[in-house]
């Protein structure tokens, strides 16, 4: 193996710096079938995401899924695409700029903050190269998944580690494995809920919808399910009388395939609510740090339509924290401990 060396390092120059790598899942470069095929192939080839024997999964992925799903997914992405690109990219870019601004002011210095995507662009390798070019030898890695899961946070660690298996000089690393207990993160969620209730009133049900994972991942020891319920509980406890316990529930969305995923399912739950007399709901997605296809199209469009078709009267989606000032302060606070 040939290792990449940093031959232009100036040992007599400025002292090495610390920098921040903010990471998220990724997005296709455009809402086109070809771009979706490339993106989905990289995403669904990750053994952390799909734990199926490799040969069997290779045949399913390449002979079936990648022949059907890219065209369908391209249409969905086109429905949420903006002039600035995909919603996830727009929000992540704003988060990088916002966190950097806070850190620069807090430390009275120019703190490098860059974005790396687990799949697609900008790649993890390119983000790390950008930090290296800024003389960063101590990297704080913050995957923007509040609740740890092997399929997301664990996979991000794999990508970072894989990059350094090819480098001669490995920097210091501080990898943050989750932040669902961050007080500022919880308070930011509470603030968004309080604002919504002040504008639209108390819903019959406040649904905390998290991205689902196969049930077998929980059975094998992945803690994600527990961290999701912990997040809901911490928000409810912090809000106190603002949100009654019986009005709150945790559900899971975005399941794929026929095997059981974490339950209750968000879509099935919302469809059943009107028949139970629950006609006014608000849905928040605390597991997503940025609005994306899964929140905008799946929840604010598809779930809204399904709820009303089954007799629901009032449906509200509470946006992700995105670049809300309270969220940026929370993210900056989390990485500041290592700076």
Largest sheet: 4 strands, parallel
Remind me, CATH topology of the largest domain? Rossmann fold
Q: Based on helices, strands and strand pairing, what is the structural class?
A: alpha/beta
Nearest-angstrom radius of gyration? 21 Å
Shape: globular
Oligomeric assembly: single chain
| Arrangement of strands in the largest sheet | 2-1-3-4
- Under the CATH scheme, the architecture of the largest domain is 3-Layer(aba) Sandwich
Properties at a glance:
2 domains, 12 helices, globular, 8 strands, alpha/beta, 339 residues, four-stranded parallel beta sheet, Rossmann fold
Written description of the protein model:
Helix 5 links the parallel strand 3 and strand 4 (172-175). The longest helix has 27 residues, at 54-80. It is built from twelve helices and eight strands. The protein folds into two domains: 17-179 and 326-336, Rossmann fold (3-Layer(aba) Sandwich); 183-318, 3-Layer(aba) Sandwich (Rossmann fold), CATH 3.40.50. The strands form two sheets. A four-stranded parallel sheet has the order 2-1-3-4, with helices on both faces. Strands 6-5-7-8 form a four-stranded parallel sheet, with helices on both faces. With 339 residues, it is an alpha/beta fold. Helices cover 47% and strands 16% of the residues. The mean pLDDT is 95. The relative contact order is 0.15. The protein has helices spanning 33-44, 54-80, 87-107, 124-133, 150-164, 183-200, 215-219, 224-239, 266-272, 293-296, 298-309, 325-336, and strands spanning 17-27, 113-120, 136-143, 172-175, 205-211, 248-253, 280-284, 314-318.
């Amino acid at each position: 193996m040939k290792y990449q060396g940093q031959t232009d390092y100036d040992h007599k120059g400025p002292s090495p710096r610390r920098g921040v790598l903010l990471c998220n899942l990724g997005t296709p470069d455009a809402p086109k079938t070809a771009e979706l095929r490339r993106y989905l192939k990289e995403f669904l080839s990750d053994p952390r995401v799909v734990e199926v024997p490799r040969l069997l999964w290779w045949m399913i992925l390449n002979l079936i899924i990648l022949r059907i799903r890219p065209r369908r997914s391209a249409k969905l992405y086109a429905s949420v695409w903006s002039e600035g690109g995909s919603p996830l990219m727009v929000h992540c870019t704003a988060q990088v700029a916002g966190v950097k601004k806070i850190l620069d002011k807090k430390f009275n210095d120019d703190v490098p903050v860059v974005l790396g995507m687990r799949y697609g662009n900008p790649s993890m390798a390119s983000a790390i190269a950008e930090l290296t070019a800024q003389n960063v030898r101590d990297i704080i890695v913050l995957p923007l998944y509040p609740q740890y899961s092997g399929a997301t946070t664990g996979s991000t660690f794999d990508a970072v580690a894989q990059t350094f298996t090819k480098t001669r000089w490995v920097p210091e690393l501080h990898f943050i494995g989750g932040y669902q207990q961050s007080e500022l993160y919880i308070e930011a969620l509470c603030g968004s809920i309080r604002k919504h209730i002040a504008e639209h009133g108390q819903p019959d049900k406040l649904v905390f919808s998290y991205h689902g994972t196969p049930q077998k991942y929980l059975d094998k020891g992945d803690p994600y399910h527990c961290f999701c319920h912990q997040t809901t509980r911490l928000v409810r406890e912090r809000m106190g009388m603002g949100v009654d316990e019986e009005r709150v529930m945790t559900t899971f969305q975005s399941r794929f395939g026929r095997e059981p995923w974490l339950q209750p399912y968000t879509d099935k739950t919302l469809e059943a609510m009107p028949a139970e007399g629950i006609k006014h709901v608000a849905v928040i997605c605390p597991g997503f740090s940025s609005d994306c296809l899964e929140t905008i199209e799946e929840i604010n469009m598809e779930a809204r339509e399904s709820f009303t078709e089954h007799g629901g009267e009032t449906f509200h989606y509470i946006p992700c924290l995105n670049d809300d000032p309270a969220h940026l302060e929370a993210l900056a606070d989390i990485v500041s401990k290592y700076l």
